[in-house]
Each structure stands twice: as C-alpha cells, then as structure tokens.
Amino acid sequence: MSIKTFDSLADLGDYYSSEVFRSMDDDTLFVFDNRQYQWLRYRWSQGRREVRFVEVISGGLPIVTQIYP
What is the pLDDT of residues 24-63, one digit of tens each? Predict the structure, then answer.
C-alpha cells in the first residue's frame, strides 16, 4: 500500500529508498517502491504544500529526469 502524502521530495525518496523522477511533460513525479516492485505516480498539491499519491503505474514511464537526490 502506498503512502498518500509526503511533505517533501526528500521524505518521498527516503521512505521508498529510491530516487525521485519528474516527467519532462509535466510536474508528475515517479518513485519506485522496492517492497511492492512497482512504479508509483505522485503530484504536487496546489501551492506545493505536499506531494500526493496519484496511481500505480502499470505500463512504461514517460521521459523523466532525476530530481532527488
């Protein structure tokens, strides 16, 4: 089960022990859950106060860049 919100990119990456990636198309964030062996999509909330869970990715990822660490 994925955590629904995080306060920062560091909290998101540290919780999953993974790098955090951002889509080149928009501000969608991706992180790999090593426990469940799946990619998760997150997005900043309005005002960038927290990072919110969107969905589990079942297909491939878009073009991404690493933003944390």
Answer: 999 899 999 999 999 999 999 999 899 999 999 999 999 9
Smallest CA-to-CA distance from 12 within 54, 64, 52 is with 52
Tokens 């306060």 locate to: 7
Amino acid letter for position 68: Y
Query: Where do we find the tokens 């919780």?
Result: 15
- DSSP track, the chain: ---SEESSHHHHHHHHTS-EEEESSSS-EEEEETTTTEEEEEEEPTTSS-EEEEEEE-S---SEEEEE-
